[in-house]
């Protein structure tokens, strides 16, 4: 008779008591790089990943160098998540390094950056606040029942970049005023019962370290759904977060997190570049 314990059974009444423990901890420091992709290269890459078209010789040679470089960095744990927009117009690379300077140097050494395929890059330190179990924030007092989970990459991810204006909340932060009602609604929308964090719609979201930018990533079926989730937030409705731009995003590195729709095409190119791709437990 097996002495293996049966899986933990979760009932709805206990969900609020769960302290989620993911199989991968969020790195202590995260640095975001946003950059544009050269139009010619981006179009060729999109046709390859969407339709299976062959890449032009000049681009395929350079892309293989780029893949070798990014794969080696990911094997060292230097990417939290990194990849292009689905239309290959831009990239979102989230580095797990010790500083913004280190992250920018890693980008500047990328063969795609050196040949100006990536350009117009910008950087900021990022703090994940949602979902709570990915953040550095403490769990809720009632969350006492630990449950281990596997991180599973969703079929679709949508990025929302916006401006963050902390000024209206300064008096509250300094203890000179009561908590603004919209901040309470924001918390409920993020991690309350039925919120985007607790319902799994928020893949990761939070502000830059200097509180000037907000980056929210949603696991949604389509762009319209992601926009609805994002713009339903009280901080958007009260104008604290504004001027959002959205795009469909695909993770390429680390390979174990690769977006499902790009997995086969990406692994095919990695192998053709001479990389021995190990058997991987993919996150879906």
Task: Describe, in plain words, how this protein is organized in 3D.
With 284 residues, this protein is α+β, with helices and mostly antiparallel strands. It folds into two domains: 30-126 and 251-272, Dimeric alpha+beta barrel (Alpha-Beta Plaits), CATH 3.30.70; 154-249, 2-Layer Sandwich (Alpha-Beta Plaits), CATH 3.30.70. Helix content is 29%, strand content 24%. A four-stranded antiparallel β-sheet has the order 3-4-2-5. The chain has a four-stranded antiparallel β-sheet with strand order 8-9-7-10. The chain has a two-stranded parallel ribbon with strand order 1-6. A hairpin with a 5-residue loop joins β3 (79-84) and β4 (90-95). The longest helix is centred in the first third of the chain and has 19 residues, at 57-75.
Summarize the entry for a quick read.
With 284 residues, the protein is of the alpha+beta class. The chain has helices at 39-51, 57-75, 100-108, 111-114, 170-173, 181-191, 223-231, 234-237, 263-272, and strands spanning 18-22, 30-37, 79-84, 90-95, 118-126, 145-149, 157-164, 202-207, 213-218, 241-249. The chain has a four-stranded antiparallel β-sheet. A four-stranded antiparallel β-sheet has the order 8-9-7-10. It has a two-stranded parallel ribbon with strand order 1-6.
């Amino acid at each position: 008779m097996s002495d293996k314990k049966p899986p933990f059974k979760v009932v709805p009444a206990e969900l609020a008591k769960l302290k989620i423990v993911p199989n991968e901890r969020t790195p202590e420091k995260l640095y975001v790089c946003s950059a544009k992709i050269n139009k010619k290269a981006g179009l060729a890459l999109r046709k390859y990943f969407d339709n299976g078209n062959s890449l032009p010789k000049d681009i395929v040679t350079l892309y293989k160098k780029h893949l070798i470089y990014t794969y080696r960095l990911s094997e060292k744990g230097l990417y939290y998540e990194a990849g292009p927009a689905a239309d290959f117009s831009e990239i979102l690379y989230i580095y797990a390094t010790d500083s913004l300077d280190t992250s920018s140097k890693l980008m500047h050494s990328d063969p795609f950056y050196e040949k100006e395929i990536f350009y117009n890059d910008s950087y900021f330190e990022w703090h994940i606040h949602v979902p709570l179990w990915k953040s550095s924030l403490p769990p809720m007092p009632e969350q006492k029942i630990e449950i281990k989970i596997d991180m599973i990459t969703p079929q679709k991810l949508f990025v929302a970049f916006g401006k963050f204006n902390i000024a209206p909340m300064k008096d509250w932060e300094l203890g000179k005023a009561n908590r603004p009602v919209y901040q309470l609604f924001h918390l409920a929308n993020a991690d309350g019962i039925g919120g985007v964090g607790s319902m799994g719609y928020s893949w990761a979201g939070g502000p830059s370290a200097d509180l000037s930018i907000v980056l929210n990533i949603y696991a949604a079926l389509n762009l319209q759904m992601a926009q609805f989730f994002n713009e339903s937030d009280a901080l958007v409705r009260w104008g604290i977060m504004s001027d959002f731009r959205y795009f469909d995003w695909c993770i390429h590195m680390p390979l174990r997190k690769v977006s499902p729709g790009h997995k086969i095409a990406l692994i095919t190119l990695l192998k053709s570049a001479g990389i021995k791709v190990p058997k991987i437990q993919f996150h879906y």
